[in-house]
Amino acid sequence: xxxxxxxxxxxxxxxxxxxxxxxxxxxxxxxxxxxxxxxxxxxxxxxxxxxxxxxxxxxxxxxxxxxxxxxxxxxxxxxxxxxxxxxxxxxxxxxxxxxxxxxxxxxxxxxxxxxxxxxxxxxxxxxxxxxxxxxxxxxxxxxxxxxxxxxxxxxxxxxxxxxxxxxxxxxxxxxxxxxxxxxxxxxxxxxxxxxxxxxxxxxxxxxxxxxxxxxxxxxxxxxxxxxxxxxxxxxxxxxxxxxxxxxxxxxxxxxxxxxxxxxxxxxxxxxxxxxxxxxxxxxxxxxxxxxxxxxxxxxxxxxxxxxxxxx
Length: 311
Description:
The chain is mainly alpha-helical. The protein has helices at residues 2-35, 60-66, 75-78, 133-138, 245-248, 257-260, 277-280, and strands spanning 205-206, 213-214, 302-304, 307-309. It has a domain at 68-102.
């Protein structure tokens, strides 16, 4: 009996002690849990750090350029319209223009589809990918605008054959499709035809090495105009030389009316030897040689006494 009682006494003592052993363990366990930070599941990034940062070497724009501008693979995760897809991440959050990442201005342009920026991000006019794009596309105080189609074959979509060409760099696809650069002057049958002068048929070309644009009507290859031997415009020139009257007609070495006067008989042409430009071309230029209507200047026509005609 005494042995049984002793065992029962031990059991009672043991069960009385257990709560005092467990309680500190529970307190310690809770204390440690509360002091730790709540575990955060790491975000899985397939592309790596800096993918959305334009300043980062891993920026997706650089990666896409390095793979020949082909972004079709992006559709696998982001959807055919780049609006989320299986990745549930929309490219259109940043690329808000029509067609999203496939909009022209994603790779070049900003205010419109033409540079700046160019496909390498350059914005300076001295950059060959920028050059005189905006001067041509927006027009100036000297002339009206010309469309992209004048010098390029504009694609119907990004992946149209001939648009993305990684072999020719920045200076491919200058093709002079439209009629302005190709305007023929002194054609037989026109009211101002002169048999003493040849037919002036422009042969426009763009030199990808020198960045010079030659043989175009726009820059002097017309009747009584200056041919390439006088001045050939440089695409990325920033000096303003190309805007001088004498580079297309007249004498670029002169000043005032003498600089603007097209070829007279003394210079191998047939233009009247008069420095009063506004006397005949009052709709285009004033007495101070300022162009007053850019739409009537460098437009493929001769404007004389208020009439526009082929010449």
